[in-house]
Structures are given as C-alpha cells and as structure tokens.
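Entry 0007
Protein: NADPH:quinone reductase
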Amino acid sequence: MRIAAYHRYGAPEVVGVEQRELPEPGPGEFRVRVHAASVGAADAAGRAGSPWFARLAFGLRRPRNAVLGSDFAGVVDAVGTGVTRFAVGDRVFGATGVDGGAHAEAVVVSQDGAVVLLPDGVSVAAAVAICDGAMTALPFLRDGGLVRRGSRVLVNGASGAVGSAAVRLAVHLGAEVTAVCGPAHVELVAGLGASRVIDYTREDPMRAGAPGAPFDVVFDAVGTSSFRRARAVLRRHGRYLTTVPTWPIMFQHLTSRLGRRRAVIMFTGLRSDEAKRPDLDLLAALAATGGFAPVVDRVLPLDAIARAHAVVDTGHKTGTVVITPVPELQEA
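Output (structure tokens):
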C-alpha cells in the first residue's frame, strides 16, 4: 500500500509517498481502507516538530512514527479474531489519536478505539472534518464553557476547522454567537449561523463595548488573543477558552480559578476513546439530519500531501483540508 511518510522534521516537502506492506489486523483489530483523512494543525506541528511541545508527542530528536494522520473515514476490509462491533463492508470513521497512521491507503485500529459507524448520507470528507474540528469544539463549548441556550459566545478564528465547527455547534446549543475572522472569510462565516461577524482587520473584538459584549464565553480557536485581553469583554463569571497551550495560559488556567473570570485550556485529543465515541455518534447523527455541516477547505489526493501541509501552514485555511488515499469509488 501507499503511505505518506516523513523521517525528519521540516517543511512540507519532508513528507513524501512511499510503499509499505499492507498491515494485517490482529485479535480485536480491524483494517480500514482509508477513503479520507484530515491534514490538520496537529499534523503540521508533528511534521515541523514545532512548537516545542509537539516533540513531546511526536519524538524529541526525530519522528517516532513515520506516518501522520489521526482522523480517518473509510470502509472495513478485514477483521481480526474477536471483532464483534464491525464487519467487512461497514463504513466507519474515527481517530487514531497520537498513534497516527491514517495518511495511508489502509490503517489498522482496535474495535475498542475511537471509531464508530458512519451514517448513510454523510460523506467521508465531512466525517474527517467532524473529527478534525467538531471533536475539539464540542467538549470545549459544552464541558469547558458550559454553553447552553441563551449563552453569549465569541469565537475567535471562526473560519478554521475548530472555529467554524464552534460557531455551528454553539448555535446548535442555543447560544448567541459573535464570530471573528479575516476579511476574506466574512461571507463564509456569516453563513454558519452567527448573529454577527467581526472583521478583525477593521474592528477590535476584545475592546470594551465591542459588538455582542459582554460574553459568557470567549473561545479563541487559533490562540491569537489572551485571557488578559478577553477579560474586557467577559461577563463577571465568564470563561476564556483557548486551544493553544502556552505557558501563560496554563498558568492562568490554574490561577484564574481564584477570580471571577476563568481561563480554560483542554487537551481534547487526550480524552479516552470511551469518552470520544458518544461524541462521534452524536456529531455524525447531527450531520446526517442536517443539524451540523462541517466546513471542508479542499480535497486532495495522497500524492498532494506536501501541498496539503503547505495549505495548513498558511494559517488561513477555511475548515478542514482532506486527503483521499483511496478514492471512494475505487475498488479495494
């Protein structure tokens, strides 16, 4: 089978297509022919070995695993002994977590992993976009921000994979949403259901008296703001959420518990597989019924893996970048 592999940290060009033997599932495992996989910020950080904390997960001096990619969707084509949850021919999607391996034509996963059936009517591209963005946004909003009907939420970085999912999910939860993005994405973000959209090049969303303020939750999906700035637009017991674990925010996460407003950092990718599966089912069901539509930036073949990484590196993608190791209509 073909894989996208890298053996040293660096620019997008360090990732290339190679051949590897097709893996066989062991007891309790099954193999998925990968029709789609996401290339996200975590993959770009793992490829570059930057920022510093990326190497704690991917290898201190060189990559621990040659094949990146956590989020996948495809069709089961082989099962090991003892597998009862899935059968050959099932459409599935999920995430391998820190093990990676999804940037390949096939991946072997445990039946006890973060993987569920993919409902009819949900495309494989949408499925991996759910894993890439919504699986981060949902626990941040629901568990970290306690967002509910009537909450007022500001989403910073609303055009990215996590930010666009956060806008749609916050609206689904009943919140009034103010979305922040650059001028090129105002129209797209306006279509996500936000009550108002702020172009950050024209207006400071973190100034006192900004449109929509004060907020119950400020969700910084791109890490370009700070708890200190967000306090100007947060309600008395408001929460600042961020996906970027800098030293200052980790310190503020601890010390802000003593104050009226709180800073919250969550490592959603490190949740247990048992915790992830119900969210995958929930989000897939929402997508199947039209209650949630993830944003896909573009779909590229496996041979364009370096280009996919380069798009992510720009920091200006809209939604999720998807690669297709095995085109969906191709025979296994």
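Curator remark: The chain has two domains: 2-118+295-324, 133-269. The chain is about 25% helix and 25% strand.
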